[in-house]
Amino acid sequence: MNADEYKGYVGVFDSGVGGISILRELVRELPNERFVYFGDSANAPYGEKTTHEVRALSFDIARELHKAGCKAIVIACNTATSAAAAELRSEFDDIPIVGVEPALKPAVLAERNGRVLVMATPMTVRLEKFQDLLREWGSKADVVSVPCEGLAARIEKGHLDAPDVIELLRSLVGSYAGNVDAVVLGCTHYPFVAPQIRAVLGDVPFFTSGEGTARQLRRLLESGGKLNPKNTQGSVHFASSRDTVEELELYQRMYECGDTLV
Fold this sequence. Notes:
CATH topology of the largest domain: Rossmann fold
Number of helices: 12
Largest sheet: 5 strands, parallel
Shape: globular
Oligomer: single chain
Number of strands: 9
CATH architecture of the largest domain: 3-Layer(aba) Sandwich
């Protein structure tokens, strides 16, 4: 990453395409900001790696974004947030670092005493950050968490209308069809298969972390005097550790299809 090219940008990263669902909310909330999105598709998915591996990968990316002059970093990945956010904030304390977490709180508040299904990666479900969230809000609803092994990796491949996507979802959450009141999409990849999840589970409300993440970024940029003026032309630039034309075209397609997600 070139320091002159990305100076003053907001850096956004994920293990691959998933964080593009967060990126869209950031652009909607902050249309005058310039964003550089880095997808670590060569190492995806993070949710099935060890905590040490995810932390090391996250630090490598954050160091590059920081060195390139980004004014803020958004960790657009639930797994990386759980594994590395606190350490990244300590290391790079001169810029705001915003993470994401499963939207369990708004789901529970909307569906008190109902059944809330949390779909997340195996690591997100396992780590203490999610367990703390579950302890805080789990008593106010019937919360069921499902580690969706293999789902993020399948989404990385694209072609999401293929029959095997529905088959995988049925194997993961099909037993809850007609028996949940809300679904928390606890991985930033999952909004890209929201129609398929709805086809399996029924017409239930979905809760994602994008809007809250975007509002938090706005607050931190405003409080730090780093918000771009309204006459600034916003932009989005994509980069990937799998640096091929095909991969970057996939990122662009995922970005453009975002309005139809949830």
